[in-house]
Each structure stands twice: as structure tokens, then as C-alpha cells.
Write a structure and sequence with these properties.
single chain, alpha+beta, 3 domains, 5-stranded mixed sheet, 9-stranded mixed sheet, RNA-binding
RNA sequence: CGGGGCGUAGCGUAGUCCGGUUAGCGCGCCUGCUUUGGGAGCAGGAGGUCGCAGGUUCGAAUCCUGCCGCCCCGACCA
């Protein structure tokens, strides 16, 4: 491809709307352009990257027996009503105004619909069906460029099985295929056990990439590889020390003291001497949750303990339940279930609310005074805490969800009546699994992990072009002749070459554009070198440069492509 | 949806508080000449509903009201 006649609009300046490196660079390198919030156009060079990622996905999906579909994005609303997901998705589901259609945010329903029509016997199973297709979700807040969009490309696949054992096999095939896909794409990622939540108890794992632009918090152990979403991550328990001096319970007037910080300042105490109270409603009943100091309640852990969803009590409910407003609530005199963080077990001489406005109680001994409390791990793990697996310090950081694999079960097949007959002629719902990969997220995450101050650094697998050939002064016949020949030769050898043949662009301009676009190898044809029958070859990633004789160029190029990722 | 910021040429921006020449600058673009190993120089030129609508005023990019759009933080995220 000749740069002089291609549309790769690079930008010297940083676009105002872009904040994270991948977003900035994808725009500056002429790969994408925004149309509207969360809606992006793939420009020709960007679309080449998308196609390369898609091709890797296809190869690995086909290798596990996947069959590629192309399902409609425009769906009748009715089928989404049948599974209750019009309500479940709520405002996230796009509705078409002038006909009763929705824009599909995923395709479980459509897969189950087709399975119902055609999969009748256990002999038809198992099946792995997949597609790479545009999905639509009315995200309240699109962000970080292509990472959270209202329209995005997703590889979604579905396993259809007759038995739970076969589901396990299909799930494992996806697990292995996903590792192969992300490895081939050159991403550094890790796999996290995910919170299955109230939606179903089936197994679910997420493929994550560490990034400040991420929306999930992950606890990770460098040493043993333990990784978990912070919603479920555990750490080594560090209970408060029991003080030697044993105080009695006493009441203190604390006018206008609401927060733990205010209490600590008012009484000149440390926050580890305070038990923070939060009241939740679960199954209509109040639960008092106690945490050390300013520790936040991990509501996912609380839900897992209670086996039901929770919500914070409303202010009016607080007064009704405890007799006090938020800021003065505590365990002494609380009627109802008390769940406390395990670090509070056996703690003494603690301060907490008095269940009377503007009063707190000191000298609380959890063993003596809060004997009915149940103790559980309720905290969010923080950086530096010990891994429960190996004891090494955990690191907590943000991460982007690249893909996720999920054992669905029979929710959709039951709702839509997608059944099969077993050996005995008995009806059963098809057992399903669902597996997703965000294609643009693979793209953006690769850029997030592979750039420097000059631009993107592509590896050979995903690069839009393999080689960028720079003809430095295209008004000199020697340069034109040599670079044209190299371009034609390399193209004939099967290389995808981007040839910077622009006549008016200066040398420096071409160098900077080439570094910005970031093809793995640059070949620089300059007047001085070419008169000596040499060109310069530069490897983008490490910046290494070689002066290469023209007759050795192609073997050198082969050699470099052998050695680079 | 709550909080904050922004909207002026393709891109980046000044001017807005305190209304008053022809709305300025850099990049990019067009023409010509020169230049070509790290974002060239000179000369000439094109390009603007100042987000939209209404209002105040002799006069609005600037003040007032409403709306729209974009970004960031948070909430939400099968």
C-alpha cells in the first residue's frame, strides 16, 4: 500500500477528548475515528487490525470445533420478553422506535431459538456455535475510547450439551482456546475467578488485562498466581490485638460526631479502636454489619454469606430500626442479626455508636458485649496484604475484562423450550454455556501494553502492515528507483508493506509518522546510503538499526522477522 | 442518573469575567519557488451558522433562559 494514496490520517497533536494512551494513539495513528459517544469508526488501517484479531479468534474457535454463524443484530422484542431480559437489561437494551424490535446486546436467545427449531436429539449434541458480530448496549457512560462503547464487536460463542459433564468439556475447550487466542495476540493477561452473583451459581472466569483504565479491581499474587476479583478476593486475616487493660462499657456524649474520622479526632483515638456500623436490609430483615475503622463493607461478600441480595437501609429505616441516625449506630442494644468483620473477633476497648443520636459507647468487648455477633471476612483486600494461598503480599489493581467464560445451564433453553430427546425418548432442556471476547478491547489492550513516547509498537501478528518502507527524498531518481524496487520485491515475497512514497513530506515527518504508526520493521531508503548500495533497517520495538547492503536486504528482513514477536 | 469540565475553521486553541474594528494564533489544506536522514523555509491563498433556540441591547462569541453534544469522576454494568 502506498501512503501517498491511502487514507491513514495521522495527527501530530493529542485530541482533547482522548485521555488514556490507547485511545490517544489509536486516533493519532489514524486507526479509528469517533462518530458519537461510545461509537467509533474503524479506519482502513484499524480495520486491518480488527481482521487480524478476528482471524486468530476464528482459527482457535474452529480448532475446538466451533461453527461460525452470522446472527441478526435486529431482534424481535418478543423473544427477549420470553426470557425476562427486556426487564433484566432495562435501559441498557436499545429499543427500535418504529417497530417492536430491539438491538441485540448478546445472543443467548437467538442461539436457543435456532436450537429449538433444529436440535432435537442427543445425537445432535454437542455443538459449539459462535459468531463475531456487532453488539449494541446503551451504556450510561461510554468511556476510554473503544474500551466501553455503545456499539462494539464481540466474539460470542455458545456450547449446547446434553449432559453437565459435556458442558465441563466445552467450557474447558473455551478456556484453552482463550489462552491460545490471547497468547497469540501477544497480550499479558491473567485469569480470575469471578463472582457469579445472584444470577446463577454456575462457574465463571474472566480474562483480565491490568490497566488503570479498567473498571474492575483485581487482587493478584505475583508469587503463586492467585487472582480474584476484589469482590471475592480473600487475604490473610489480621485480627486486632486484644488490649491488656480491660475497660467496662461507658457512654460518651459526642455532639455532631458522625464519621469515624470525626470520632477519632474528638476522642483522640485511632480508627482501629472504632467499630463502624452499617445497616443492610436482606430478605426484608435488618442486618447490622460492623467493620474496623474506615473499612468498607464488601457487599458481594455479604451477599455470598447471606445467600441473598442486600441493600443499605434507608435513613428513615435506620431511625426506626436502631433509634438513631447514621453516625450513632452500634452493636450495644441492637436487636437483630449482627455480622462483623472477622478482624473484630475478640477485640476489646472498642468505640461504636450508642443507638442514640450524639452518643457513642466505649469499652466494648466483642467477646463479652457482642456475644451474638457472627464473624466473617467482609473487607476489600488491599495492596500489601498476605495471599491466603502462599502468604506473599497481594497487589490490588484495576483491570479490563477482555473475555469471560460462563456455564449458563438451562435458563435460556428452558425459557424458550429448547429441548432434546435423550436415549430413552425423554425431554430435557439443552445445557448451555456462553463465552465472550471483546474484539476492540483486545485491540485497545494491545496498544495499552505496547507503546512508547513516539507511538504504537506493533508486533508482527496484529500490525496493520509488517513493514513501513520510507523513501526519504522522492524527488531523487536514485531513491525512487531503489525504494520502488524494494516495495515491489517485498510485496512479491508476500510482505504487507506500507510504502511512504509521499513526494512532499520531509524526512523527519516520515520518521515520526512511521514511529507513530509503529509497524514492526522500517526500511529507510536515503540518498546517501543508496549511493553506497545500502539502506537502513530499523526494528521499531528496540530501536535497533542496521546498515544493510541491498543484496542482503531480503535475507536480513527474513532474519529479523524470524527473531521478533 | 449525581458531581465537575468543555463546546470558536479538519485538529489544537486565544478572546468570554468587564458586550463595541474585518473573531486572532499554531498545525493541517491549496498555489508557486526553494528544501529533503528526525515533525522544512519564503511568498500568496482558501476555509467560521463562535453547539442550537429564544431573550436583553443601538450592538452579543461575550450577558440571561432553555435545550443539545462531548470528556472526566462516581453510581450502574446479564
Amino acid at each position: 500500500m502506498r501512503l501517498s494514496s491511502s487514507f491513514i490520517p495521522t495527527l501530530k497533536e493529542v485530541p482533547t477528548d482522548a485521555v488514556i494512551p490507547s485511545h490517544i494513539l489509536m486516533i493519532r495513528a489514524g486507526l479509528i475515528r469517533q462518530l458519537s459517544a461510545g461509537i467509533y469508526s474503524m479506519l482502513p488501517a484499524g480495520y486491518k487490525v480488527i481482521r487480524k484479531i478476528s482471524e486468530i479468534i476464528r482459527e482457535e474457535m474452529n480448532a475446538i470445533g466451533g461453527q461460525e454463524f452470522h446472527l441478526p443484530a435486529l431482534n424481535p422484542r418478543e423473544i427477549w420478553d420470553d426470557t425476562g431480559r427486556v426487564e433484566a437489561f432495562g435501559d441498557t437494551l436499545f429499543h427500535v422506535k418504529n417497530r417492536d424490535y430491539v438491538l441485540a446486546p448478546t445472543h443467548e436467545e437467538i442461539i436457543a431459538f435456532h436450537a429449538k427449531g433444529s436440535v432435537k436429539s442427543y445425537k445432535d449434541l454437542p455443538q459449539i456455535w459462535y459468531q463475531i458480530q456487532t453488539k449494541f448496549r446503551n451504556e450510561a457512560r461510554p468511556r476510554s475510547g473503544v474500551i466501553r462503547g455503545r456499539q462494539f464487536l464481540m466474539k460470542d460463542s455458545y456450547t449446547l450439551d446434553a449432559t453437565w459433564e459435556d458442558l465441563d468439556i466445552g467450557y474447558q475447550k473455551h478456556y484453552d482456546a482463550y489462552k491460545a487466542i490471547f497468547d497469540r495476540c501477544g497480550l499479558k493477561y491473567f485469569i480470575v475467578g469471578a463472582h457469579s452473583g445472584a444470577m446463577g451459581g454456575s462457574k465463571s472466569e474472566e480474562f483480565m488485562v491490568k490497566s488503570d483504565a479498567g473498571e474492575d479491581n483485581i487482587a493478584y499474587c505475583e508469587k503463586c498466581g492467585y487472582a480474584a476479583n476484589s469482590e471475592v478476593a480473600a487475604s490473610v486475616n489480621k485480627p486486632l490485638d486484644r488490649k491488656d487493660e480491660q475497660k467496662e462499657v461507658f457512654e460518651i456524649s459526642t455532639p455532631n460526631v458522625k464519621s469515624i474520622d470525626e470520632l477519632c479526632e474528638f476522642l483522640s483515638i485511632d480508627e482501629t479502636e472504632c467499630a463502624k456500623s452499617r445497616v443492610y436490609i436482606s430478605d426484608g430483615k435488618p442486618i447490622l454489619v460492623l467493620m474496623v475503622g474506615n473499612d468498607e463493607v464488601n457487599e458481594s461478600k455479604l451477599e455470598n454469606i447471606l445467600g441473598s441480595q442486600v441493600r443499605p437501609a434507608h435513613p428513615e429505616e435506620l431511625l426506626d430500626i436502631t433509634g438513631a441516625d447514621a453516625g450513632s449506630i452500634g452493636p450495644i442494644g441492637f436487636k437483630g442479626r449482627i455480622i462483623a468483620d472477622m478482624n473484630l473477633k475478640d477485640a476489646n476497648n472498642m468505640y461504636s455508636g450508642a443507638n442514640k443520636n450524639d452518643y457513642h459507647i466505649g469499652g466494648i468487648d466483642f467477646t463479652r458485649d457482642v456475644a451474638n455477633a457472627e464473624f466473617f471476612d467482609l473487607r476489600f483486600v488491599e495492596t500489601g496484604e498476605g495471599c491466603t494461598n502462599c502468604g506473599e503480599a497481594l497487589e490490588v489493581f484495576k483491570a479490563i475484562e477482555l473475555g469471560h467464560i460462563f456455564k449458563l445451564g438451562t435458563k435460556y433453553s428452558e425459557a424458550l423450550g429448547a429441548n432434546f430427546l435423550d436415549e430413552n425418548g425423554k425431554d430435557h432442556p439443552i445445557i448451555m454455556g456462553s463465552y465472550g471476547i471483546g474484539v476492540e478491547r483486545v485491540f485497545a489492550c494491545y496498544v495499552e501494553q505496547n507503546f512508547d513516547e513516539r507511538g504504537i509498537i506493533w508486533g508482527k501478528k496484529l500490525a496493520p502492515f509488517q513493514i513501513q518502507l520510507l523513501g526519504l527524498n522522492m524527488k531523487k531518481d536514485v531513491v525512487v528507483d531503489a525504494s520502488e524496487k524494494i516495495y515491489l520485491d517485498l510485496t512479491a515475497k508476500g510482505f504487507d508493506v506500507l510504502f511512504d512514497d509521499r513526494i512532499d513530506a520531509s524526512a523527519g515527518f516520515k520518521f515520526n509518522d512511521a514511529d507513530l504508526m509503529g509497524m514492526p520493521v522500517q526500511i529507510i531508503v536515503g540518498e546517501r546510503n543508496i549511493k553506497e548500495n545500502t539502506v537502513e533497517v530499523k526494528v521499531r520495538r528496540d530501536g535497533e538499526r542496521f546498515q544493510v547492503k541491498l543484496d542482503e536486504l531480503y535475507s536480513k528482513i527474513d532474519e529479523i522477522f524470524e527473531s521478533i514477536e
